[in-house]
Amino acid sequence: MSSTRSLSHPPQHYYKLNTKQQRNWRKHTRKIEKNEALKLKYPSFQPSSDINIIHIHYKSNLDTLNELIEKAQQTKRYTLDTEGAKNKKHEKGALIQIQFIHSVNYSTIIIIETNYLPDRHTILYAKIKELWSTIFSNYNEIITWGPIEDEFKEFLHLEFNHIGKNIEDTNLQSSFRSWYFEQQKTHPEMEKCDVDDTDDDEEMDGSDEELDSTTYDDATVWSLQKAIEVTFKKFLDKSLTVNWWQCGLDLKLNTWKNQLFSRHNYDEQKEKQERFKMVQYATNDCTSVAELYFHMYPGKSNDQQTPQTPPATTQTITLSAPTITSTNITKKFLYELSDIMEDELITSLKPRFNKNEYAPRQSNYSQDELIITT
After folding, report:
1. Which residues contact 123 (CB under 8 A, 6 or more apart)?
2. CA 111 vs CA 28, 43, 85, 89, 286: distances in Å
3. Overall average pLDDT of the 188-211 stretch
4. How many CB atoms lie within 10 A of CB 287?
5. HSE of 136 in the Cβ direction (CA atoms, 13 Å)?
6. How do beta strands 369-372 and 50-56 pair?
7. pLDDT by residue (tens digit) across 71-80?
8. For the whole prediction, is pTM greater than 0.85?
9. Of 211, 285, 229, 242, whose CA–CA distance to 38 is shortest?
């Protein structure tokens, strides 16, 4: 029996849901079906440049932060995305991903795991604040898919979350609709994109992962997935949008030693692999925006900084994309996400430590870096 969710064959428990729950079930099922259809139709999106991934948390060391600050001082263009952990009580952000665009061929992506930051009174925390203020200053260009203020709605609790006015914020989502409209006018032979039917009773929250339109014109708000589809004929996977982003992705946090994704019996490989997929997913949400940006504005590719050579202590790994069974993963989380409350999850995953253990000890931790070579 297939485990794929289907609008035409809802499960028995569907009929026990109230009206709002049924509407949400249909909305999520439609997204799953759409994601699977695109997965079969197009090759998966993969970044075309080398990506250096660095996790930021309480186990980061001072050398890593100092090198990042130095890189930020030489970088003028960034992409930014965030991932939130939602429950019925409150919304709280879990990840902040920032891509340092050194050139069209090389970038650094930092993943700030906000549930695992060091104590605010440590030097390490002060360095994270310094890095943040360096990025969001000097009239640097910050590229997002949607309004930049929307990305930080779930991170107001962070002390260093100050954007300021000394940046150039580029909402590529808004720019894309105008650009695409012009492309259709100047290139009438351009292939018309398929449209998706949406029930009138569906509640859409307007997020880039959910919003599609039955017409694509100059007033349309585009999803990132749709923009990648019509521009590059590639599939940008959105199956992991609803996920345990607060689980602790970096393996150095050792949260994989707890049973979370392997629901019945603990499976070390499963725990690590799911985190690996989530890192790739979060990375693609940045790199896809960057590649759209340079496709829309090819002249911008000539004003980048010279790629910086990764430090000698960096471990270089060639990664092959894992097989992602997106339907099963999404189905699993939509059904089971309510089994564990957010506060309980963080309590169980986050290590208990005292003030002394927050202090960074550079000799104990290697650099939190990973190179994706494509």
Report:
1. 62, 359, 360
2. 27, 26, 15, 25, 11
3. 43
4. 24
5. 15
6. antiparallel
7. 999 999 999 9
8. no
9. 229
Rounded to whole angstroms, the Cα distance separating 324 from 327 reads 9
Q: Is residue 252 exposed (0-12), middle (13-18) or buried (19+ Cβ within 10 Å)?
A: middle
Residue 106 to residue 49: CA distance in whole angstroms: 5
Q: Rounded mean pLDDT of the chain?
A: 77
User: pLDDT > 90: what percent of the chain?
Assistant: 48
Q: Are 79 and 290 in contact (CB under 8 A)?
A: yes
Secondary structure (H, E, C), 123-163: HHHHHHHHHHHHHCCCCEEEEECCCHHHHCHHHCCCCCCCC
Only one residue has tokens 């097989």, namely: 323
State the SS3 of the chain.
CCCCCCCCCCCHHHHHCCHHHHHHHHHHHHHHHHHHHHHHHCCECCCCCEEEEEEECCCCCHHHHHHHHHHHHCCCEEEEEEEEEECCCCEEEEEEEEEEECCCCEEEEEEEEHHHCCCCCCHHHHHHHHHHHHHCCCCEEEEECCCHHHHCHHHCCCCCCCCCCCEEEEEHHHHHHHHHHHHHHHCCCCCCCCCCCCCCCCCCCCCCCCCCCCCCCCCCCCCHHHHHHHHHCCECCCCCCCCCHHHCCCHHHCHHHCCCCCCCCCCHHHHHHHHHHHHHHHHHHHHHHHHHHHHHCHHHHHCCCCCCCCCCCCCEECCCCCCCCHHHHHHHHHHHHHHCCHHHHHHHHCCCCCHHHHCCCHHHCCCCEEEECC
Q: What is the CA radius of gyration of the chain?
A: 21
| Cα distance between residue 79 and residue 193, in whole Å | 26
Quote the pLDDT of residue 210.
Answer: 40
Q: Where are the domains of the chain?
A: 12-372
Q: Would the pLDDT of 270 be above 80?
A: yes
Q: What is the pLDDT of residues 21-68, one digit of tens each?
A: 878 878 878 888 888 888 889 999 999 989 999 999 999 999 999 999
Secondary structure of 237-253 as H, E, C letters: CCCCCCCCHHHCCCHHH
Contact between residue 88 and residue 277 where contact means Cβ atoms under 8 Å apart: no
Q: Kindly report the CATH number that applies to the domain delimited by 12-372.
A: 3.30.420.10
